[in-house]
Design a protein that fits this description.
The protein is of the alpha+beta class and 218 residues long. It contains seven helices and five strands. The N and C termini lie far apart (173 Å).
Length: 218
């Protein structure tokens, strides 16, 4: 490969590394052209699957600051540069490798850190971003419902209490004046009878009786 072509090829791989969220290295030895096409179709917009030369990939990895990558660049290599959901791309590669054993996942890189094949497999076992977002949304809605219930419960209780007080006030208006529970003043006709005047009348009767007795004696 001429130097200008080599430089352009390295620059293209560098751009792919920089523009992607991660990358998975595979060995595609034994796969047919049709199978490679099927793999690209299966990955869809999540990843761009490209066959690369190991020497050029090493240079590009060095330029973007990826370390510990050289050991993975052996044999025929193709890299899935992940542009979408990393977990979905890893799942797509894993599932395709199960159906087509000729595809071997050698490792990858995520956030600039190298991953071995086992770590890529663990990544594929995670739930996708959409599933996690769905669960998060469900949890948020549940929390929101609980919050609304907790906020509305005291209001409903206060409304019931106000209704009960209003009904009681209609029956006994003195509640509004702060007289609830205070016995009413006794009516005039219910007032106790004053016994003093009766005693005075008795004394007057006795005095009137004495002159009558004297006149009888005379």
């Amino acid at each position: 490969m001429a130097r200008p072509e080599k430089t352009a090829a390295v620059a293209e791989i560098v751009d792919s590394f920089n523009d992607s969220a991660g990358a998975v290295l595979t060995e595609y030895r034994g796969l047919t052209v049709k199978q490679l096409q099927d793999l690209r179709r299966a990955l869809g917009e999540n990843a761009n699957y490209a066959v690369v030369k190991n020497t050029l990939a090493k240079i590009a990895a060095t330029e973007v600051g990826i370390e510990g990558f050289d050991d993975l660049l052996t044999g025929p290599t193709a890299i899935a540069f992940i542009n979408g959901d990393v977990v979905e791309a890893a799942k797509g590669l894993r599932d395709f490798a199960k159906a087509n054993p000729a595809l071997v996942i050698k490792g990858g890189v995520l956030d600039g850190k190298p991953l071995d094949a086992a770590e890529v497999a663990k990544l594929a076992d995670l739930e996708s971003r959409e599933v996690l977002m769905g669960k998060l949304a469900g949890a948020m809605l549940a929390s929101l419902s609980q919050a609304v219930y907790l906020l509305n419960a005291p209001i409903a209780q206060a409304a019931r209490l106000a209704g009960a007080l209003q009904a009681k006030a209609e029956q006994d208006p003195s509640i509004l004046a702060g007289g609830a529970g205070t016995p009413a003043a006794p009516a005039a006709e219910d007032a106790p009878v004053d016994e003093a005047p009766a005693a005075e009348e008795t004394e007057a009767t006795d005095e009137a009786a004495e002159p009558a007795a004297e006149s009888t004696d005379a």
